[in-house]
Amino acid sequence: MRHVRGAVVSEYEHTCLIRGDGGRTLRAVLDRICNKWTLLIVATLDQGNVRFTDLHHQIPGISQRMLTLTLRNLERDGLVSRTVYAEVPPRVEYALTAIGKSLIPPALALAGWAIEHVPHIEASRAAYQDRSR
Amino acid sequence: MRHVRGAVVSEYEHTCLIRGDGGRTLRAVLDRICNKWTLLIVATLDQGNVRFTDLHHQIPGISQRMLTLTLRNLERDGLVSRTVYAEVPPRVEYALTAIGKSLIPPALALAGWAIEHVPHIEASRAAYQDRSR
DNA sequence: CAGTATCCTTAGCGATACTG
DNA sequence: CAGTATCGCTAAGGATACTG
Fold it and tell me: Whose CB among A111, B38, B69, B87 lies 3.0–4.6 Å from B17's, allowing a Cys bridge?
């Protein structure tokens, strides 16, 4: 319960965090986060410094192209740091920044919700299919 | 704390919630949630029963088409209920189901993160732009 | 009021091949 | 090792017009 201009406001008002500016702030995040590989990469980088090839091996199914692109976006947004070592053969290590790390708890909240509810959602989808036949 | 091949492993192991099945469960949710309108609609429906036209007015910028499509998907996944009243003119009310409501806390976690970090992220993007000029 | 139907553009992604 | 470059597909979404 919260108070706004003296009135007691029920829980639903919290959702103004979501609807706030017409959803623009939330969407700014969703647009960066909700692509196919970002959260997987962030979760993988949570173990510390990781090299390009290690990421490639630890994330099944990702192509070099998408790994590079997603890492560039994460670097550009300041969630991931990229360190190049002047060696031969070249070595590049990626790591989460403080902001990158701070993304993990909310991501875990979503993952927890997923694990809890996805089975029911899939059942619901299947039932919906049957109805329209 | 857990041990892997004799080494002590810290918190990062929590992220197996995300990486678990190669990220399939999490992606099943992200795929439904991360489109442009879903979370906005869910947040708007948190106020209770809402009619189609009310949703249309309360969500700035959404087209009839996308409102219908997104609502259908939410209904199909069991997050939203749809009630048709046999009246003239027609009346249709949408509401969150229990599962739909349960999505709000994780969504708020993400929205909170967004509000806290998006300014810094945008600054980082701008700086990145400048560097490549 | 509460939708459908149609057309169209763009962004995301995969596959493949090549390189400093 | 750590990437680029190019091509091609598909799905998301917007604009507009129509309807039981």
Answer: A111
Give yes or no for a contact between B61 and B115, defined as CB atoms under 8 angstroms apart. no
Contact A79, A42 (CB under 8 A): yes
Q: Which of B19, B46, B106 sits opposite A40 (nearest CB)?
A: B19
Lay out the sheet containing A91-96: strands in order across: A50-51, A91-96, A80-85
Question: pTM of the full predicted structure?
Answer: 0.89
The pLDDT, as a whole number, for residue B6 is 39
Q: Would you say how long chain A is, in residues? A: 133
Amino acid at B80: V
Question: Rounded to an integer, what distance in angstroms lies between the CA atom of residue B80 and that of residue B65?
Answer: 17
Residue B52 CB in 7 A reach of strand C: yes
pLDDT tens digit string along B103-122? 999 999 999 999 999 999 99
Q: How far apart are CA A72 and CA B46, in angstroms?
A: 37
What pLDDT is stored for residue A11 in this prediction? 53
B34 vs A32: CB contact, 8 Å cut-off? no
Alpha helices in A34-103 (DSSP H): 38-45, 52-58, 64-76, 98-102
